[in-house]
Amino acid sequence: MAAIDLRSDTVTLPTAAMREAISRAELGDDVFSEDPTINRLEAMMAERTGMEAGLLVASGTMGNITSLLTHCGRGEEVILGDSAHIFLNEAGGLSALGGMVVHTIPNQPDGTLRLEDIEGAIRADNIHFPRTRLVCLENTHNRCSGAALTPEYTAAVTALAKRRGLLVHLDGARLFNAAVALGVDCRELTQGIDSVNVCLSKGLAAPVGSVICGNRAFIARARRTRKMLGGGMRQAGIIAAAGIVALEQMVDRLAEDHANARRLAAGIAAIAGLATDPARVQTNILYCDLRPGRFSDQEFLDRLAQKGLRVSHTGPARFRMLTHWGISAADIDAALAILAAVMKG
Ligand SMILES: *Cc1c(COP(=O)(O)O)cnc(C)c1O
After folding, report:
1. Are 264 and 286 in contact (CB under 8 A)?
2. What is the 158 CA–ligand 1 centroid distance (Å)?
3. Where in the chain are the domains?
4. Which ranges of the chain does DSSP label H, i.e. alpha helix?
5. Distance, CA 11 to ligand 1 centroid (Å)?
6. pLDDT by position in tens, the chain (length 345)
7. Given ligand 1 and candidates 65, 87, 145, 199, which is best to mutate, with the most ligand atoms within 8 Å of its CB?
8. Per the CATH hierarchy, to which homologous superfamily does domain 253-344 belong?
9. Ligand 1: which residues within 6 Å by Cβ?
10. What separation in Å is there between the alpha carbon of 129 and the centre of ligand 1?
11. Which atom of ligand 1 is found nearest the CA of 59?
């Protein structure tokens, strides 16, 4: 029996169309900006996000650190949510590599940062203080149940930032999930943003890569930062070829993943001993709590795995499940049957 793997949408394998596109890709040396396939992907992503230019990077983490290092100097301060992927899951790169000062403020359950919290975190001009440079948002918000930030909220943050002379970076690893869930154009979610990072290798199912977008001057500087990080890849059009297929063929179908996540949440809510809030599931991510007493977290994971279901462990008695290409509605029903059987003992 093949395992139903709900640990992450990064486990998706490239589609047949992607493998075909990889084998046919026209290539060149991208350090000389001469890979036509990469140039095409970068232009496509810039167009989709309403930005002037794009830059292919090896991963979402590389997209975020390349953007932050391009925006901020050592000793400058970054305001970000205390549940942000950049804060929790990127090995502290902004401090380790960039000497940036991290100023966290609470993420609300819907993934937002309160405007008054952002305002309150901005430093006065005083020689005792670091200089505040950047605010980071995340859309969809991974730790906040895949919540989608709206165009109205994003506009409110960018207006505040502009008024206070700050830049805004958007970690849009799953930006297309947000656009599909809200029924809006990506450009509405990036309006006023200075840089955005979009992953190709999550729900869009490409094997490798992310694209960062911004204005031409930012991308020109980011190209140097990427080189410094060792990310000047040569014939990486083999990566970009799959990314183009991802943008052309894999965006609209994200709605299926969202429907499957809602189906999963409704089913879990009906299983005694498990708790999840179906009302919070907007996209393809859900968190589920195991009521204490029955099993240890490891026993729960082991029992699920024995029956062919893999989920990720994200905290004491807390588990995360993601739907993605390769998970059908029938797989969701099978996953629910396994969860119910394990909880029955
Ligand atoms: C996955 C993810 C990233 C990083 O992407 P990698 O390709 O795994 O480095 C960044 N931000 C968010 C919100 C993510 O979910």
Report:
1. yes
2. 22
3. 16-249, 253-344
4. 16-24, 36-49, 60-71, 85-88, 93-96, 115-121, 151-163, 175-182, 186-190, 216-228, 237-249, 254-269, 297-306, 329-344
5. 13
6. 579 999 999 999 999 999 999 999 999 999 999 999 999 999 999 999 999 999 999 999 999 999 999 999 999 999 999 999 999 999 999 999 999 999 999 999 999 999 999 999 999 999 999 999 999 999 999 999 999 999 999 999 999 999 999 999 999 999 999 999 999 999 999 999 999 999 999 999 999 999 999 999 999 999 999 999 999 999 999 999 999 999 999 999 999 999 999 999 999 999 999 999 999 999 999 999 999 888 999 999 999 999 999 999 999 999 999 999 999 999 999 999 999 999 998
7. 199
8. Aspartate Aminotransferase, domain 1 (3.90.1150.10)
9. 59-61, 64, 85, 138, 142, 171, 173, 199, 201, 210
10. 31
11. 7
Q: How far is the CA of 127 from the centre of ligand 1 (A)?
A: 35
Token pair of 79, please? 């305001």
Rg (CA), the chain: 20
User: Are residues 95 and 87 in contact, defined by beta-carbon separation less than 8 angstroms?
Assistant: no
64 CA: nearest ligand 1 atom: 10
Topology of the domain comprising 16-249: Aspartate Aminotransferase; domain 2 (3.40.640)
